[in-house]
Amino acid sequence: MKAAVIKAPGVIEVEEIQTPQPAEGEVLLQVEACAICGTDQRVLKGTKPVDVPVVGHEITGRVAAVGEGVTEIKEGERYIVQTVIGCNECAACARSQQNLCEKGFKAMGYQYNGGFAEYIVMPRAAVDQGCLISIPEELTAEAGTIIEPLSCCVNGMKYIPLDKCKNVVIFGGGIIGVLNGLVAKAKGAESVTIMDVSQDRLDLLASLGLPFDNYVNTAEIDAETWVSEKTGGFGVDAVVVAASVKPLASLGVKLLAKGGHLSIFAGMPKPDPIEPIDLNLIHYGELNIHGANSSAINEYLEARDLVVSGKVDTKPLVTHRFSLDDFNKAVSTQADPSTGALKVVIIP
Ligand SMILES: [Zn+2]
Ligand SMILES: [Zn+2]
What we know:
binds zinc ion, seven-stranded mixed β-sheet
């Protein structure tokens, strides 16, 4: 089969490798589509290490073969793939929160070969855990790839009473900011504002016809002043930090209304993740601060339903499609803001 193989940091070659065969308990998927994610970019560049030569974890596939002993999953069925695989022994795994596995989860496309290939094997631990999540025939393969990142946003937003939120601010107009905003809208937030320092990015989102209410260029407009004017000085109900910029967390706290929610979706630079925050704003304002780390089955099911029902419209999100042969072009297109790429999908 054809696969995009990491040869060295930043060196990826599309080549023929042995098509894997499913061993006992395993499932072989024919990859219909696999989207490139921001984490993949770091892995491909070599700044984030993985254990395997083939990455890609936002996968839609069809079962090509099943290993011995697999009875629930049948050849020809369509699935999307849950990324994280827990230890199946700790308390978090017992609660089906493998994303918080106390032993550290393993992941498709990180510890097991991923979806930038014609076929992918789902290991037994993933099959047993229920990492294959069924999708209907009518769902497009590229829409299926959105379910994985959307599930991470469903997870990050799950602590926020979105149906009671008048105003939500999202810092960061990348695909993750957009998906967080779409979850907020789908779950009843009245007004969603995307803030970004790139006018090109904001123009792109506006041109895609996304259902957001305001686009604010914070390189030109002061976020605190804008929020204060917009809300009569009360602040917004929720802020999502969807950009790896530490001061956005302390700024986000300042934008919140009493009882508001700050979701720190983005990971911060590992060598220096410390950011001073006015704790009295949290104390007197009874603010809520949330983290977000991947997702597990409940968030996948909710994300799948949002996509299948059309409550989250994925059509505007996939801006570019490439074959596996053009993998390197796809990666550079996604990395280059001037291309107007939001989500780039590989169709092997
Ligand atoms: Zn991802
Ligand atoms: Zn565990």
